[in-house]
Write a structure and sequence with these properties.
2 copies of one chain form a homodimer. By secondary structure, chain A is mainly alpha-helical. Chain A has 5 helices and 2 strands. Chain A has a two-stranded antiparallel ribbon with strand order 1-2. The structure holds a DNA duplex.
Chain lengths: 146, 146
DNA sequence: CATTTCGTAACTTATTTAGTTGCGTGAACA
DNA sequence: TGTTCACGCAACTAAATAAGTTACGAAATG
């Protein structure tokens, strides 16, 4: 595939379900914070696979939102009280930025491209910021339905 | 792949280069609005293929931003004066919404999932709106570099 | 009527993600 | 101590999406 100086700007929010899985799981855990849950339990509830669960929750552990223990009675627990885990924490932990205006690998050969990149990147930067800000206003314990 | 009731919410901004191509091309055309350009010309400048160009610009034509003519001296032209084509017009024409909170195909079996969907969808709705608003503040003629 | 240019369908290739299997590691417990 | 349970991780498969490409039809111009 020959794509030369044209990946200049590229918006990147993947069309994946990781954020969905993470938020869903954490919201559930917020309803019963003292319970330890295994990947298998979570996977069954979420309709997916234990390995996928560990992959996603692993990132949340790296971000300090969860802890995991091996062995008997092991599994996953919230690392903080639910009220202190915001949707933004989860979003940022997964590194799924809407903006992430990729810097061009090579300097754009074209002045229009350069100006375009700057303009759009600026807008997306603002947007990203307000997205995180709004997500930060809600904690995982506020999302519960019943 | 077995993904049952879990596509509930899914953010969807594709990691494609269509918007980039569209904006780049329109910005260029804005610099010389009376010139008709062929897919081949545009493709060469953008480092891609004429068919790809027609695919993308076709959407802009459907949205009333461009016109295309077949035959000798045919090609693409802006349908309006450049100052009246905003970045938002282009963004919307390509139907590449950041938000696009997919409604769940099936009603979520789980109350947490339901509440989560509502909460996140609300936030994303707001974000989408402000994104479009900010893009609307810039026209393709303002993006030019030199 | 020959040429040019768009319109579109079909196909290939690359990338990304989810799903899956398998095995290693460490902790609990009998 | 040794079995079991649970995570950690690597490797593979399968599906979805997008770009690129080829080919051909349709319309407009000269």
């Amino acid at each position: 595939m020959l794509r030369e100086a044209k990946d200049a700007w590229r918006p990147t929010l993947k069309r994946n379900s990781r954020l969905s899985l993470a938020l869903h799981t954490l919201s559930h855990m917020a309803g019963n914070p003292d319970q330890t849950r295994t990947s298998a339990d979570i996977a069954e509830h979420a309709g997916t696979n234990p390995v996928v669960v560990r992959r996603v929750l692993g990132r949340l552990r790296e971000a300090g939102l969860l802890t995991s223990e091996k062995g008997h009675a092991g599994g996953w627990r919230l690392a903080r009280v639910p009220a202190e885990i915001s949707l933004a924490d989860v979003y940022l932990a997964l590194d799924e930025r809407i903006v992430a205006s990729d810097e061009p690998d090579d300097a754009p050969s074209c002045s229009v491209e350069h100006a375009l990149h700057k303009t759009v990147a600026g807008v997306l930067q603002d947007i990203e910021q307000s997205l995180v800000q709004k997500l930060a206003e809600t904690s995982i314990s506020e999302v519960r339905g019943s």
